[in-house]
Amino acid sequence: MTRFTSGATTDVLVVGGGIIGLAVAWRARQRGLGVVVADPAPGGGAAQVAAGMLAPVTELQYGEEPLLRLGMASNERYAAFTAELEEASGLPTGYRACGTLAVALDSDDREELRELHAFHRRLGLDSAWLTGRECRKLEPMLAPGVRGGLHVADDHQVDGRRLAAALVAACERAGVLLHRAEAVELLVAGGRATGARLSTGELLGAGQVVLAAGPRSHLLPGLPEGVLPPVRPVKGQILRLRVPEAYRPFLSRNVRAVVRGQHLYLVPREDGELVIGATSEEQGYDTTVTAGGVYELLRDAHELVPGITELPLVETSAGLRPGSPDNAPLLGPTALPGLVAATGHYRNGVLLTPVTGDLLAEYLATGATPPLAAPFSPGRFAAGPPAAAAVPAGAAPSDLSTPAKALA
Amino acid sequence: MTRFTSGATTDVLVVGGGIIGLAVAWRARQRGLGVVVADPAPGGGAAQVAAGMLAPVTELQYGEEPLLRLGMASNERYAAFTAELEEASGLPTGYRACGTLAVALDSDDREELRELHAFHRRLGLDSAWLTGRECRKLEPMLAPGVRGGLHVADDHQVDGRRLAAALVAACERAGVLLHRAEAVELLVAGGRATGARLSTGELLGAGQVVLAAGPRSHLLPGLPEGVLPPVRPVKGQILRLRVPEAYRPFLSRNVRAVVRGQHLYLVPREDGELVIGATSEEQGYDTTVTAGGVYELLRDAHELVPGITELPLVETSAGLRPGSPDNAPLLGPTALPGLVAATGHYRNGVLLTPVTGDLLAEYLATGATPPLAAPFSPGRFAAGPPAAAAVPAGAAPSDLSTPAKALA
C-alpha cells in the first residue's frame, strides 16, 4: 500500500491548473470538498494563447447537437459565472457581451453560411442574415468584398488570460491549495486511483483524482492503458494587435470568416487589444511561432479587414489545444475508479469552462453524472464506433464549411 | 562664459553612442585624443535593428559615385576593421564574407538588374550575371520563378548587435569614457561649440563636439539654426527568423530582390539567425512594429524564398535610419567651429562605420578633411542645389530600380 507523505491527503486532487482544472477545483471547493491543484504554473496552458471567443452558435455543425447543447449551456452561464468570479477574485475577466458577425468573402462561403443559418432556424437558434452592405454598416472596417453574413447576438468573448488569473485568485481565496509542482505519476492501488506523486517527491493522496492536463493528460505515467483515449495536441498560432485610441472602435464585435479553408477570427477586446486567430496544425508538442503561421494569419485577416495593416503588432504566440479522438471533451468518471477526466476540450476550452466546472463538481460531490455530461463520458471510445457526441468522421471539426461536407 | 563642471573637460565629446559615434570615439582615442561619449545606452540605435548587409555594389545607383567610393572604401576595410575590433574587444562581430545574390522575380526586374550589371562593368566592379537556374544552384531555396540575378562576391554582412557590443567594449578598453547620460544642450560660446549639458545637469567641456545622434542630431537644443540640415527618421521594420539545425544551410549568402518596389533582403547569419528586411516608412519618430509591415515582409520574402514559412519567427522590430536631405551622410566640420558631424548615414550606417571612424578621427586629430570625406561636408546644402554626393531628385534612394528611373 502506498504511504502518502505525512498529512498530504485531500478529497480531490486536480492534475493540471489550466482554466478547466481551476474551474473544477473552484466549484468543487464551493461544494465543501478539500481540493488540491498540482501545476508548476497554475493559470497557464492554452488559455494564455486563446482568443476567448464564446461562439457555440457560429461554430455549430451538423451531427454535433450534444456538443451544441453543452456549449449553449456554458454560454448561458457565462455572464453569471464571470460576475461571480470577478466578485470572488476581485479581478476582471474581460467578459464582453458583444455578439459575433460571421461573414462570407465569396459566393461559396455565402452558400455555406446560408446553410448554417437554415440549420440555426431549424434548431430555433437566434441568428440574423445580413447582406454585405448590412455587415459593413455594423462593422465599417470590413473589406468591401464581404458578400453577406450571419449576426449572432449571443456569441460573446472573454479574455483567457484575465479569466485564468481570476480563477487562480478565486481558488486561493476559496481555500483550494495550489501546489506549484508537477504531478509526475498517477498512484493506483487496489484497482483505484489513490493520488499522485509530485515532482517534489511528495506523495499526495486523494479520494478522487481529476485529470485536467490538456494534451498531456493521457501521458501521465502510471495511468493504466485504455483508461483515457489519446488527447492530441493541435497547435494554434495567434496574433495580438493593439488598436490605438484614435482608431477606436476599430471593430465592435467578434468578426469571423473561413478564409482558404481556415477559421479566421478577430476578437476586439474592450481594452483595445485585437486578437487574430488561429492556425490549426497537428505536429506534436510544438509551440514555435513560425513565419508561415504569422504570414497566413496576417494575409487572411488583411483580406477580411484591410485596415489591420495600420495597427501595431504586439505579440505572436502559439498554444496547444487538447483534441480527443472525436474532438468532443472527456468529462466525468473513467474506467479506473477514483479517476475523473476533464480534458479534450479542443477549440472550446474557454467556452466550456463554466459548464465543465459545474458538471464535474456535481459529479465529484454526488457521484452522479449529470445528464448534460453523459454524452461526453471518457468511456465512449471503448465500445466501437463513436457516440452521439462525436464530430462526423472526415469533417473538419467546428469548421463553418462542415454542413455541406458532412452532407456530401 | 560657461562654467564647466569641475574637471569635466575632454578633447572630444561624441554626442550619441550608436555604432557611428562609437567608431569615431574608438578611432579618435587611438589617435591619442581624450574622448567622452554621451549616451544613456551606448551601443543602441539603429544597429540594434539593422540587417547588417554590407552591399555597396548591389546598392549602387547612377549619380552616386562619391557614395559608392565611400562605401567601397568602407567595405574594403571591413575585414581588417572587424578583426582589429574583435581583438581589441574580445568579442565577435559576426562579420561574414559570404557575398550577395541579387535576383529578379520578373522580366522588368531582370532588365533593371542587367542595367545595373552593365553599370558595374563600366565602373570596373566585380559582378557576375547568372541565369535563374544558376541562381537556384547557388541558393536552392530560391523560388522557382527567379528569372536571373547578379552575384556580387564582395558584398558581405556583419551582425549589427554584435558590432555595437564589440565597439562598446573596445571603447571602454581603449579608455574612452562612456558617460551614460543624454546630451540635452549644445554649449556654444564665442561662436564656437564648447561642450554639452547632460541630463544629469553636468556641463561637459570639449575641444571638439561630434554630433552622432542619428535622426535626432539636428534636434539638439542649442544647435544654431542652419548649422546642420534636418536628419529625418526613416523607419525600417525587420524580422528575425531562426533556421533550425536540420534546415541548414538554408541560405548561404545574402539574397536580395526588389519586390513590389520595396527592397527585400534575407541575411543569413552563421549562428542560424535569418534577418529579413526592411520596410522604408517616413512617418516621424515612430518605432512601432505594425501588422502591415510584418505582413509585407513575410509576403515578399515568401515570394522570394517560399520555404521561410517553416522557420520560427523569433523577433519583429523597428528602427529609424537617419536620412539627410540627399540621403548621403554628413561627415566632418560644420559651419560652427568646434562642431563636427557624423550622421545622416541613412541605409548605410553599418557599412560606413569603419570609414566614418577613420575619416572623422583623421579630421579630429589633424584638422584636415580627408579627400574621401570632402563630398559629404555638412555645408553642402548651404549653397543651392545638392552637390555630387546627392542621390538624384525623385529617385527612391538606393533602390535597385533607380537606374532606369534616374535616366528617364
Describe this structure in words.
Two copies of one chain form a homodimer. With 408 residues, the first copy, chain A, is α/β, with parallel strands linked by helices. The first copy, chain A, has a domain at 9-48 and 162-231 and 325-390: FAD/NAD(P)-binding domain. The first copy, chain A, is built from eight helices and 18 strands. In chain A, the strands form three sheets. In chain A, strands 1, 2, 8, 9, 10, 11, 17 and 18 form an eight-stranded mixed beta sheet that branches. The first copy, chain A, has an eight-stranded mixed beta sheet with strand order 5-6-4-13-14-15-12-16, with helices on both faces. In chain A, helix 1 (19-30) runs parallel beside helix 7 (349-366) and helix 2 (65-89) packs across helix 7. The A-B interface holds A 239, 241, 288-295, 298-299, 301-302, 308-313, 316 and B 239, 241, 288-295, 298-299, 301-302, 308-313, 316. Chains A, B: One of its GO terms (molecular function) is glycine oxidase activity.
